[in-house]
Amino acid sequence: MVAQELNNVDWTPLSRMETCDEMINCFYNLLTDLIDSYLPLVIVKRHTTDKPSVTDQFRRLIRCRQNAWRSGQTARYRSYRNRVQLMSKTLQRKLRSEDRQTAGW
After folding, report:
1. Where are the alpha helices (DSSP H) in the chain?
2. What is the pTM of this model?
3. Block means of pLDDT (10 residues each) for the chain, length 105 residues?
């Protein structure tokens, strides 16, 4: 999709520009517009009550687990449940380890 879009771009204005700076700015603007249309920003909500060990990947796993539960996909739910539990333990261990290192243990 992106490659096809790049093939459809009219590149002749670039060759008509006089300075390299103009060409670079035009090129970057074109690429930025394409990237913004195909890769939009993802808004992540943070809460003040979140523990420091909660990462975006952990939140995604929890969301997938909950979606599987709501849709009644038991096998998928169990798989995500196990992955959430494993990641939770791993993140907690990592946080405790970092806390000990900063405390000088």
Report:
1. 2-8, 12-16, 20-38, 56-70, 74-103
2. 0.56
3. 83 88 91 85 80 87 96 97 96 86 70
